[in-house]
Amino acid sequence: MNDVIVVEGLHDEIRIKSVYPDANVVITNGSEVSEDTIKLLKELAKTHDIIIFTDPDSPGERIRSIINANIPSCKQAFLRKKDAISKNKKKVGIEHADYDIIKEALEKVFSNKVNTTESITSLELYELGLNGMPDSSLIRDKISNYLNIGKPNFKTFYKRLNLLGITKEELKDIICKIK
């Protein structure tokens, strides 16, 4: 694997290396993401694909957002929260995910579609019943599960659909498949 996988901590790196022993891994060491880490990733992005693979929680989303803002060409890998919960049910993280789940997530990497226009608008999401309706959250959860993009709130869901370049027509097809 020539890609560089960005994770939050040492335990995440150890878990990734248990699946892909030769993986190139960069650790952010927390949700602040230092300038040195951003500089390193920018330099690595010149010769490698960068895959952001952070925990499915708020700090992980913060890290993903910071890195994407600085390096828009990054690829995205996601874990479902339910697949990253510790045995004692108190922690969430990549280090708690099973071998097969990590492998699946890294095989389903999404490329950022870097453009200045939205692929789908918030109005279109409303028209599809994905916001403002009694079952909107449930349908978004099913779509998120289908796309393997975690379990985001509406705002993050909207951003991820645009990040992945999902159109209204593609979303209609997904809704048909999950019902």
Describe the structure.
- The protein is 45% helix and 8% strand.
- With 179 residues, the protein is an alpha/beta fold.
- It folds into 2 domains: 1-112, Dna Topoisomerase Vi A Subunit, Chain: A, domain 2; 114-179, no CATH class.
- Strands 2-1-3-4-5 form a 5-stranded mixed sheet, with helices on both faces.
- Helix 1 packs across helix 4 (99-107).
- The longest helix has 13 residues, at 58-70.
- The mean pLDDT is 89.
Annotate the secondary structure layout.
Blueprint: E1 4-7, H1 10-19, E2 24-27, H2 35-44, E3 50-52, H3 58-70, E4 75-76, H4 99-107, E5 110-111, H5 122-127, H6 136-147, H7 154-163, H8 168-178
Parallel strand pairs: 1-2, 1-3, 3-4
Antiparallel strand pairs: 4-5
Helix pairs in contact: 1-4, 6-8
| CATH class annotation of the largest domain | Alpha Beta
User: Which sequence of strands runs across the widest sheet?
Assistant: 2-1-3-4-5
Give the distance, in angstroms, between the N- and C-terminal Cα atoms. 36 Å
- Largest sheet descriptor: 5 strands, mixed
Helix content: 40-55%
Order of helices and strands: EHEHEHEHEHHHH
Note the beta-strand portion: 5-15%
Average pLDDT for all residues = 89
How many individual β-strands? 5
User: Number of helical runs?
Assistant: 8
Radius of gyration: 16 Å
The CATH topology annotation of the largest domain reads as Dna Topoisomerase Vi A Subunit, Chain: A, domain 2
* Overall domain count: 2
Query: Would you identify the regions where 5 or more consecutive residues have pLDDT less than 50?
Result: none
The secondary-structure class comes to alpha/beta
